[in-house]
Amino acid sequence: MREKYDVIIAGLGPAGTVALWHLARKGFNVAAIDWRNLNTLWGKPCGDALGAHHPREAGLPEPPSTVIKNHVKAIDIYSPGETTRYRVHGEGYIINRNAFGKWLVESVIDKDNVDVFFNSKVLEPIIKDNKVVGVRAKIADKVAELRSSIVIEATGFSRVLRNKLPHEWPIYEPIDPRDTNIAYREVIEYEDYKIDEPDVIRIYLDQEIAPGGYWWYFPESAKSVNVGLGVQGGMGYPNPMTIYKEKLTKHPLLQKKYHVHNAAGAPLPTRRPSNTLVGPGIVAIGDAGYTVNPVHGGGMGYAFRAAYYAAQAIEEAYNRNDFSEEGLWSLNINYMQNVGAKQAALDVFRRFLQRLPNDDIRYGMEKKLLPEEDVLYTSNVGELRISTLEKAKIIIRGLGRPSLLAKLKLVGDYMKKARDHYMNYPESPAQLSEWIKETERIFNEFEQKLAEKM
Ligand SMILES: Cc1cc2nc3c(=O)[nH]c(=O)nc-3n(C[C@H](O)[C@H](O)[C@H](O)COP(=O)(O)OP(=O)(O)OC[C@H]3O[C@@H](n4cnc5c(N)ncnc54)[C@H](O)[C@@H]3O)c2cc1C
Fold this sequence. Notes:
- This protein is α/β, with parallel strands linked by helices.
- It is globular and about 65 Å long.
- Strands 1, 2, 6, 7, 8, 9, 15 and 16 form an eight-stranded mixed beta sheet that branches. The protein has an eight-stranded mixed beta sheet with strand order 3-5-4-11-12-13-10-14.
- It has helices spanning 14-26, 53-57, 97-106, 240-246, 300-320, 330-355, 358-366, 372-381, 388-398, 402-423, 432-453; strands spanning 5-10, 30-33, 49-51, 68-78, 85-95, 114-117, 121-128, 131-139, 142-153, 180-190, 200-204, 215-219, 224-232, 258-269, 278-279, 282-284.
- The site of flavin-adenine dinucleotide (FAD) has 42 residues, from helix 1, strand 3, strand 7, strand 10 and strand 14.
- The site of flavin-adenine dinucleotide has 42 residues, from helix 1, strand 3, strand 7, strand 10 and strand 14.
């Protein structure tokens, strides 16, 4: 153990691991701490689906076949009652999370500038002179104080460090439970049933089975599949495991003989990114920074991206010898403009979707009020793209439900407002509090107008 590191990484899930991978290769002295071991890293329950573009966009090599369980070529989205199906084409993987994490960590763990502490618990940040200067951690059953110029908070949804920062620091920002999903999933292997099109993953919208979320069926092969559901938090909805056992198991796809290989649940953030991902001497990435897609809850790819930008910001901070909020600010600018603006727009869309009754979802999909070919565009760009010609067609289709059409227009307008606002993310921390006020104004105004129309 060194007396002082350049960077300490708390948590080696997808976010912390990718940060480690980049920082180790840049030559920084890095300590990384996780309570799992090399074989159980990234062990949090997940749907394991990852768009093929994500590793590339985060500066990582193409994943080898040993870390991929299945190749995906499309996503099918089903309306409630499965009356309509949208097919969205796109390349992706179902990954083996443990193997993926191990692959990345193993490629840097033997470097002289890297110390990884497995089976060790991060306890709290060490704060001195109003900045984070290290962490207190239980390493080999002994409490130790590790010092560094910068700490990376990557402990996932539990936000072990962020939760213990001074409440007046903007990075503290706790999460509203309604901006979370509680998810449960089982990995099952059929005895003698062969999955139709195992290279297509499936998402089922149904507010009765998955209120404020969806249920999924992601084949890992022709015989095994990751099935689960997410339910919006803070609303008093039943526990997703109970719903799984009571309702989902009655679905024809689960009325076959199978073995359960793994069953587990976990919460996840489903909102726009934190107002700021940086504080004095600390950055927060991955679920700890709420860097997920608010609509589908996919968080691995965005954890990678946040980690990539964090490594760049840390390098710049070192070059300037400035580890303050200001010195690390480029992480915010890069993340908000390249990813966060889209996620903010999708946060608007998510709030709308969560309030839509099954009937409206069914009608909207049947009449293609959001055309099938625009689903991918909307989720990639965070914009409801409706050309003039399409608009005319949509209005005709939507005439049966004019109020739904009006809501869709409101949603489109506020998605644009949110995206534009995030694209104008402040150049320095000095303007952050004004920007946060405006963010809150946009989202509160949207909530109010939406409530009037629901
Ligand atoms: C059921 C479910 C299904 C999902 N499906 C998908 C999907 O299909 N695709 C997708 O992209 N995303 C999915 N997600 C989201 C995805 O799993 C997360 O966004 C992603 O894992 C976030 O990575 P992370 O590194 O930020 O956090 P985590 O994966 O939670 O990693 C945090 C790490 O910190 C460690 N840690 C925590 N506390 C401490 C401590 N005190 N001391 C030491 N170590 C600590 C943990 O051991 C862990 O290794 C799903 C989530 C759930 C719950």
